[in-house]
Amino acid sequence: RGLGDVYKRQSTMKAFEHELPEGKFLRIHKSYIVNLDKVDRFNSKNVEVGAYEIPLSRNKKTQLVDALNNI
Hints:
Blueprint: E1 6-8, H1 13-19, E2 25-29, E3 32-35, E4 41-42, E5 46-49, E6 52-55, H2 61-69
Antiparallel strand pairs: 1-3, 2-3, 4-5, 5-6
């Protein structure tokens, strides 16, 4: 998978997050938003998207579980 599956930005994450389709993407860390369809697996600290291991914020784990259960 290419980098198109993983988005990383610093300065305008909030604005970028609001531009994405609701229910398809989730901000899982202050610097990362993932496409929920591309999440292969996760644990309490990381989310795997293809070959990428992305940090998962502690307070986003519940949101991730809920979001994955609703797709």
